[in-house]
From TrEMBL:
Family: Belongs to the small heat shock protein (HSP20) family.
Species of origin: Rhodoferax saidenbachensis
Source species, domain of life: Bacteria
Name by which UniProt lists this protein: HSP20 family molecular chaperone IbpA
InterPro entries reported in the protein's UniProt record: A-crystallin/Hsp20_dom, HSP20-like_chaperone
Domain SHSP residues, every copy: 32-129
């Protein structure tokens, strides 16, 4: 009965500051765990002419995937009949030429070789009179 009626001296000074940021640290831990899991499931490389994305897609057939390219954004998602749900969008640093790009799915690994679009210079030079 003594503990129930008497206020704790340590309750406001010790416990609250020690546990005040617990919610954020748990969120940060979960975000880091999910981020590292996403990072280990794929790889990204770049050279002068193309970007290469390699993603793990176990259990999904090539007929069950949809890949779309719009400018510098590549969207990959599984179709409704796929046994697993996958949906992601990747924004690349440069526009992609979809006509020269290719996708290959082998043994559960999707490899996208995305050709960089060559920037067109539309500047014209004016003559000075």
């Amino acid at each position: 009965m003594f503990f129930a009626s008497a206020p704790s001296v340590f309750q406001s000074s010790v416990r609250r500051p020690a546990y005040a940021h617990t919610g954020r640290s748990v969120d940060r831990f979960i975000d880091d765990a999910l981020f590292s899991a996403r990072q280990s499931a794929g790889a990204y490389k770049q050279d002068e002419t193309s970007f290469t994305l390699t993603l793990d897609m176990p259990g999904i057939a090539k007929e069950q995937l949809s890949i779309s390219i719009e400018g510098a954004v590549v969207r990959i998602q599984s179709k409704e009949d796929a046994p697993r749900r996958y949906r992601a969008a990747y924004e690349l640093p440069q526009d992609v030429d979809s006509a020269l790009s290719e996708a290959k799915l082998e043994n559960g690994v999707l490899t996208l070789k995305l050709a960089k679009k060559v920037p067109v210079n539309n500047a014209t030079e004016l003559t000075i009179q």
